[in-house]
Amino acid sequence: MEQLIYKIILIYFVLGGIGFYLINRKKDRDVARKSYTKFGVYFIIINILFFSITIQPVVFS
Fold first, then answer.
1. DSSP string for 13-48
2. Which of 37, 44, 53, 56 is 20 to 30 A from 26 (CA-CA)?
């Protein structure tokens, strides 16, 4: 079950990454870099949260 949920999360992040690319390709380089950094940080936070929940479910119950 966790694998299915993680695959869905990854699919949404890939779609979001494509969206970020399409939106940022015409923006200034510094603005685009900030956007990509934000996307990367969100990806890291979501992965940490997901693995925290799957490894220690007692804490989140």
1. HHHHHHHHHHHHTTS-HHHHHHHHHHHHHHHHHHHH
2. 44
